[in-house]
């Protein structure tokens, strides 16, 4: 058998050269560029059942059923014995986001949460680890004696989806499980609004502690909203948390309406920018919006067609780079919008996780800015304290492309990176 590849007969070993360091899988907060995510660790389980199965366990068809752990475990074990489970997916909106970030950046990230102390082959925790990028540092997950969360999707022959939610011990993350040095040296801290509903659980204190650490160290805080029903339930709490601790909010158009009462994404974004510095809104077939602030003296006019909607000429300055409002002498609101990539896929295989993919692209651009500033602090890219490396328009383009990749696959997480991003004339300006 011919061995593949070409081989050199002569080899040269420079004995005087310093030996290369072995790669580190654990994040070094003093040297690495990374983002930190805090999540309720949950595994998505997909199974096919009949209506009799639902009736047997008293599960409301077509509903999201929150059940106690023992009952959920009986359901899961029966599904295993019936061979009804078709897939296990690592879930969680922040788990998805940091995984996608590491795939896009080909670099490290950190996930904070809980993990079963005793993991058996084929268990939900085992599947979570198997479906998470090796570049996501999981060494700081807090061990619990119980199980991670499980979201069981039961599909009946008529195609109806019924959900069984078992929180397990996913809310048992304590403040002691938040490594301060990791948070304070991160490019960004990203979390979701979901833990806000875990009233009386330790994860509330863990979330507050991480927010305080990030705010004190001036690490940008990014919050993803959950579902429309969650936002409606926790609207005042989300608004308060965002106003006090968060710089960037990410959501879809339904969550934006639930948060602001505005059905138009532009008007919703205008309201949200009174609380935070940037907002990302994915709007399905209408594309996505990225809105924020830049300084009046630093605004850059677009060469793209000018758009008008509920706000006239809203994308005029979308070639500007994002800034925190507090860093602007004269803050100017900037709005950017992009239609779905290639008009959207001909066939959508999965919508779950598209927003997480878009957010991962934004985080990648922010981390790239942080990394470049560390390497080239005197670069013209950093004459002002910009929040991201690229303009609003360019980030929109990147986020849109990542969302498309999620929509055309069955899983909610990227399995590989994307082709090189398309450059444009406006990017060349910032490279000068």
TrEMBL record:
It catalyses: guanosine + ATP = GMP + ADP + H(+); inosine + ATP = IMP + ADP + H(+). Its EC number is 2.7.1.73. ATP binds at residues 282-287, 355, 400. One of its GO terms (biological process) is purine ribonucleoside salvage. The keyword Transcription regulation does not apply. Keywords: ATP-binding, Kinase, Magnesium, Nucleotide-binding, Purine salvage, Transferase. GMP binds at residues 92-96, 197. SUPFAM superfamilies: Ribokinase-like (SSF53613). GO terms for molecular function: ATP binding; guanosine kinase activity; inosine kinase activity. Pfam families: PfkB (PF00294). It is an enzyme of class 2 (transferase). It comes from the Bacteria. Its cofactor is Mg(2+). Residues 134-294 form the Carbohydrate kinase PfkB domain. Belongs to the carbohydrate kinase PfkB family. PANTHER family: CARBOHYDRATE KINASE PFKB DOMAIN-CONTAINING PROTEIN, SUGAR KINASE. Catalyzes the phosphorylation of guanosine and inosine to GMP and IMP, respectively. This is Guanosine-inosine kinase. It comes from Alkalimonas amylolytica.
